[in-house]
Amino acid sequence: MDTLFLRDFRLQIIIGVYEWERRAPQTIQLDIEIGLPHSRASLSDNVADTINYAEIAERIRDYATQREFNLVEALAEQIAQLVIREFGTPWIKVCVTKLGVVRGIRQLGVCVERGQKI
Fold it and tell me: Which of 11, 33, 63, 67 would bridge 93 by S-S if both were Cys, CB 3.0 to 4.6 A apart?
C-alpha cells in the first residue's frame, strides 16, 4: 500500500477539559498517514489519480478550527472518519499532539488507526 503523509501539521484550536485550557486556542500538531486506494499516480504522474494532500489539509483545517474539542482522542477519531468518508482512503493513522500543556512534558497525545491496509 502506498501511503501519503502529513507531518507536523499545526493548528490553533480550542481543546481541553479544564477551564484554563479552553480560554484560548492551543497549538496542536497532527501527524497523519493516509493509505492510498491504489498506486496509479506513481505511474501516471497525475494528481487526479491520487488523494490530493492540499485538499485534505484544507478540509481538516476548516473542520478542526470551527469546532471545540474536549479530548485529543475525539479529535483524532473525527479527523480519521472525515478523511475515510470524504476522500475514500482504506486506512488512516492520525496522531494528535498537544504541545507544552503539562509542566515537564513537552508533548502528549494519541494515535488512532482506522480501516485496513490493503
Answer: 33
Quote the CA–CA distance of 76 and 27 in Å, as a whole number: 15
Active site residues: 98
Q: Please indicate, yes or no, whether the overall pTM of this predicted structure exceeds 0.70.
A: yes
* Whole-angstrom distance, CA of residue 31 vs CA of residue 76: 10
Question: What is the crossing angle of helices 72-87 and 53-65, to 10°?
Answer: 140
The sheet that has 91-102: what strands, in order across it? 68-69, 3-15, 26-35, 91-102, 105-115
Cell 497532527 appears where? 30
Indicate the CATH number for domain 3-115: 3.30.1130.10
In the numeric block, which cell numbers belong to residue 115?
480501516
Pairing of strands 68-69, 3-15: parallel
3-state secondary structure of 57: helix
Per-residue pLDDT tens over the stretch 31-56: 999 999 888 888 899 988 889 999 99
Indicate the DSSP class of residue 79: H
